Amino acid sequence: MKIRDLKKEDILLLSKIVSLNYSKKYGENSKKEIEASFENKIIPPKYLVAEEKGKIFGFAGYIQSWMDYSVYNIFWVNVHPDYQKQNIGSKLVKEVIKKIKSIKGDYKAKMILLTTTKPKFYSERFGFEIMSSLGKDEVLMSLKF
Ligand SMILES: CC(C)(COP(=O)(O)OP(=O)(O)OC[C@H]1O[C@@H](n2cnc3c(N)ncnc32)[C@H](O)[C@@H]1OP(=O)(O)O)[C@@H](O)C(=O)NCCC(=O)NCCS
Question: What number does the ligand 1 atom closest to the CA of 120 have?
């Protein structure tokens, strides 16, 4: 399994994974958000993709925050429902954190923020801490460097 940067031809497949995990509407939204990675944005979203032998199993996105250039957000961590619980999500998040930590200079990361309904996944493996409840099962989590 390799974790690599997004290619344009991945977009439709990745949005299909989101449709399967959430809904058709979320799938359509994610398609536009992933496409933004190739547009000329001052702060573009970036995505890593889990692939083996040409087959795509999942992906994860991250972006620098407009709130503060040293804060980054992780989002759309999605593994195809048929391939969950095989460590793919963990590999993706590990690589995203590595990428964010490798940023040097003015944009060096001080913190990662994310929201999730699966806090255990992020706290046990990566040390994220719950900052606040956002209602229902959703929480805001942070990882401070
Ligand atoms: C959340 C999500 C990304 C996790 O991806 P994943 O590939 O299933 O994650 P992992 O396999 O690394 O870990 C998930 C669980 O499988 C277990 N696991 C990993 N490898 C395993 C293996 N070989 N055998 C048995 N269990 C295993 C892990 O221990 C972990 O257990 P836990 O949930 O009790 O902590 C995935 O479930 C998903 O896409 N869900 C839908 C979208 C979503 O909710 N995204 C999160 C938004 S923040």
Answer: 35
- Give yes or no for residue 120 CB within 6 A of ligand 1: yes
Strands 139-144 and 111-116: antiparallel
Q: How many CA atoms lie within 13 A of 1 on its CB side?
A: 18
Pick from 79, 93, 97 the residue to mutate for probing ligand 1's pocket: most ligand atoms within 8 Å of its CB. Answer: 79
Q: Report the distance separating Cα 129 and Cα 119, nearest Å.
A: 8
DSSP label at residue 19: H
Tell me the CATH number at 116. Answer: 3.40.630.30
Asked if residue 85 has its Cβ within 6 Å of ligand 1, the reply is yes
Please state the atom number of ligand 1 nearest to the C-alpha of residue 125: 35
Looking at the structure of the chain, the number of domains it has is 1
Domain that holds residue 123: 2-144
Q: Where are the alpha helices (DSSP H) in 36-139?
A: 88-101, 119-126
| DSSP strand pairing (71-79 vs 111-116) | parallel
Nearest-CA residue for atom 5 of ligand 1? 89
Percent of the chain surpassing pLDDT 70: 100
List pLDDT tens digits, range 71-84.
Answer: 999 999 999 999 99
